[in-house]
Design a protein that fits this description.
Length: 283
């Protein structure tokens, strides 16, 4: 072989940063460094290291890069900023394009057995509301049957039948308490119903909220609501109560309860363009 006679192995498909990380790991006691390690852009860099390690079956390096990826994603939580969404999808796309979906040849397998692909599929399914309009996700669904199968396998069933009511008549009266299901955009009485602060975006609807304590975002606000003559928020954990201008929010991530409202520090994210701001058009 050429490598044996010339003592040189050419890896034209491995970029410089990935090779640098690999050489650091080889020569510096099993560690490697990446610039801006806590940034979402590092996900793709770690994923490339993982793919290289998988290619040559370097298990310790695979373990290290896998731990870096999963730790970073756990820290990022539910991404919302456009740059973070793009960064996550770039890593997911690279992984599904360069890792074996399964060690089996059975065509009936619908879920990946490769651990990073399983993790990415689970994360993408969990954060699907954020990724729905992402061009990379649409392209991946079109060109990667493996990813499409994995996403479907991890997806949850719809919470209601298609004939169930999805909007609420805000003029209704109720003396008791009842649980209703509201669409994100049709529920004008919801506490987090706003118009996007980005002039070029036309979205008006229930926003995604960011916890002022741990800074993670919560996209589940706005699904099920409690009706006591006025809209009060989610039923399951009673995490948001009050009015549009003054409300209390309990974070599902850190469990801290915060008094919020108006522009007193919380950041809301648009569900359409994922723009995050403290200044919103009240509806």
């Amino acid at each position: 072989m050429k490598e044996g006679t010339e003592g040189v192995m050419e890896l034209s498909d491995v970029d410089e940063l990935t090779m640098k990380a690999f050489l650091q790991w080889v020569y510096y006691k099993g560690e490697y460094t990446i610039e801006n390690p806590k940034a979402s852009s590092s996900l793709l860099k770690h994923t490339k290291v993982y793919v290289l390690a998988d290619r040559f079956n370097i298990v310790p390096l695979k373990d290290l890069s896998y731990n870096q990826i999963t730790t970073l994603l756990a820290d990022l939580g539910m991404v919302a900023a456009a740059d973070d969404v793009e960064a996550v999808m770039a890593a997911v796309s690279f992984a599904f394009g360069n890792l074996p979906f399964s060690s089996s040849t059975l065509s009936s397998i619908t879920a990946p057995t490769e651990r990073l692909l399983k993790y990415f599929a689970h994360y993408t399914s969990w954060a699907l509301d954020v990724f729905r309009t992402n061009a990379e996700l649409c392209s991946l669904l079109e060109h990667s049957p493996d990813f499409a199968k994995a996403l479907v396998t991890n997806s949850r069933s719809a919470p209601t039948a298609p004939w169930a009511a999805s909007t609420i008549d805000s003029g209704s009266e109720s003396k008791g308490t009842m649980t209703l299901t509201a669409s994100y955009t049709g529920d004008k009485s919801h506490i987090l119903h706003r118009g996007c602060a980005r002039p070029e975006c036309s979205y008006t609807g229930v926003m995604i909220i960011q916890c002022p304590s741990c800074k993670k975002v919560d996209s589940e606000i706005g699904g099920s609501i409690q009706f006591k003559g006025s809209i009060l928020g989610t039923v399951e954990q009673d995490r948001i109560t009050g009015t549009k201008t003054s409300y209390s929010y309990k974070c599902k991530w850190c469990n801290v309860k915060s008094d919020m409202g108006g522009t007193r520090g919380e950041k809301l994210f648009c569900r359409k363009c994922l723009y995050g701001s403290q200044d919103w058009v009240m509806t």
